[in-house]
């Protein structure tokens, strides 16, 4: 321990009364006399403080274990009792884990870490190389003086409690739901699935799609899905019939249309709004949200707006009964673009 050392300028400070009332300058009162802690001079007190810190770290670790047990060992069978028990153990376990690791750190700092008071004079923000080297030496010495190196049990307890503390949070993240897998890239469309009217799910005959008409389409089996709204958000389609010579030929799309009947995803590739406006004269599809415009004559290429990808095309054909059916799923993910699609 070292006593307080005041700057020379402060030592020379004196009262200079101004006409017996307000002093021009106040004397620097300095710091009160330093009160040494019992742990600094009494080895028994130091050992007692060390045991207290260890006990707190142990309680922190115990709280973490209790929260893990509450999460994994208590089955949620749908009853209020198990739900309440799970919440109580999780809450108390997490609370004890965080509380006692904090109190242990505070108690360690107040009882066992160096208790030296000093005044550091102001100086330019960046010191000389010699000063920086001196600072590094001081930091190293401070680490040694913290006593953690001489108290391996406290250091081990601190490391153990800190390592266990994040585990409940990691376990709870699992409740955010399963990973999506390929569900964002696949839809209900498959070979042989009939194109049906939205929302009646009535199958569509190719002969009923007249030149210049547009249909809002869903898979015929949509309502058989347990999450049909989620599936509809990916599988919704628009079909339009145009003069086959209007659409530019693409060898890789050979056979994807039925005598000028084209099927494209209805979900805008910008942020997923429904592309519901079709201009019959220009053959443009317009998204009403941000005005992205797609040109049917160029296989729904983006010609205006913030969308970056063309609308995915659904390859279709006619089955033996004259109904329009898909020949496969989309060949690229429908819907809004995200990081995986560029």
UniProtKB/TrEMBL annotation:
- Name the domain of life this protein comes from: Bacteria
- Any idea which GO molecular function terms this record carries? 2 iron, 2 sulfur cluster binding; metal ion binding; monooxygenase activity; oxidoreductase activity, acting on paired donors, with incorporation or reduction of molecular oxygen
Rieske domain residues are 256-325
**InterPro entries with a match to the protein in the record:** QcrA_N (IPR045603), Rieske_2Fe-2S (IPR017941), Rieske_2Fe-2S_sf (IPR036922), Rieske_Fe-S_prot (IPR014349)
Membrane topology annotation: Multi-pass membrane protein
List residues traversing the bilayer: 53-74, 86-109, 153-173
Q: Which GO terms describe its cellular component?
A: plasma membrane
Region Disordered: start-end pairs: 1-46
Bias regions of kind Polar residues — which residues?
A: 1-11
Keywords, alphabetical = 2Fe-2S, Cell membrane, Disulfide bond, Electron transport, Iron, Iron-sulfur, Membrane, Metal-binding, Oxidoreductase, Respiratory chain, Transmembrane, Transmembrane helix, Transport
Main subcellular localisation: membrane
Give compartment(s). Cell membrane
Q: CDD domains, from UniProt? A: Rieske
Q: Does the keyword Cell inner membrane apply?
A: no
Q: Is Aminoacyl-tRNA synthetase tagged as a keyword?
A: no
Q: Which family does it belong to?
A: Belongs to the Rieske iron-sulfur protein family.
What exactly does this protein do? Iron-sulfur subunit of the cytochrome bc1 complex, an essential component of the respiratory electron transport chain required for ATP synthesis. The bc1 complex catalyzes the oxidation of menaquinol and the reduction of cytochrome c in the respiratory chain. The bc1 complex operates through a Q-cycle mechanism that couples electron transfer to generation of the proton gradient that drives ATP synthesis.
Q: What is this protein called?
A: Cytochrome bc1 complex Rieske iron-sulfur subunit
The protein's organism comes out as Pseudokineococcus lusitanus
């Amino acid at each position: 321990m070292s006593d307080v050392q005041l700057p020379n300028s402060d030592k020379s400070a004196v009262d200079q009364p101004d006409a017996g009332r307000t002093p021009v300058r106040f004397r620097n009162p300095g710091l009160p006399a330093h009160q040494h802690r019992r742990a600094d001079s009494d080895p028994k007190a130091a050992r007692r403080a060390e045991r207290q810190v260890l006990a707190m770290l142990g309680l922190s670790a115990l709280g973490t274990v209790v929260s893990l047990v509450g999460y994994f060992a208590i089955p949620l069978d749908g009853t209020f009792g198990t739900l309440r028990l799970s919440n109580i153990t999780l809450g108390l376990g997490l609370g004890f884990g965080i509380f006692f690791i904090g109190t242990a750190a505070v108690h360690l700092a107040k009882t066992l870490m160096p208790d030296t008071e000093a005044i550091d004079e102001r100086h330019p923000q960046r010191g000389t190389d010699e000063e920086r080297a001196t600072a590094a030496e001081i930091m190293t010495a401070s680490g040694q003086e913290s006593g953690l190196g001489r108290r391996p049990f406290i250091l081990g307890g601190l490391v153990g409690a800190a390592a266990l503390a994040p585990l409940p949070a990691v376990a709870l993240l699992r409740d955010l739901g399963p990973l999506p897998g390929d569900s964002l890239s696949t839809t209900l469309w498959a070979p042989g699935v009939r194109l049906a009217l939205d929302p009646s799910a009535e199958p569509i005959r190719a002969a009923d799609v007249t030149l210049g008409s547009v249909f809002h389409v869903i898979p015929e089996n949509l309502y058989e899905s347990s999450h049909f709204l989620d599936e509809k958000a990916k599988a919704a389609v628009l079909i339009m019939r145009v003069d086959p010579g209007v659409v530019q030929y693409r060898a890789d799309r050979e056979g994807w249309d039925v005598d000028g009947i084209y099927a494209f995803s209805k979900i805008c590739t910008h942020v997923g709004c429904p592309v519901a406006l079709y201009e019959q004269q220009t053959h443009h599809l317009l998204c009403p949200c941000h005005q992205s415009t797609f040109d049917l004559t160029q296989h729904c290429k983006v010609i205006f707006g913030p969308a970056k990808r063309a609308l995915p095309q659904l390859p279709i054909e006619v089955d033996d009964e004259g109904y329009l059916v898909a020949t496969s799923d989309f060949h690229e993910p429908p819907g809004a673009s995200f990081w995986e699609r560029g």
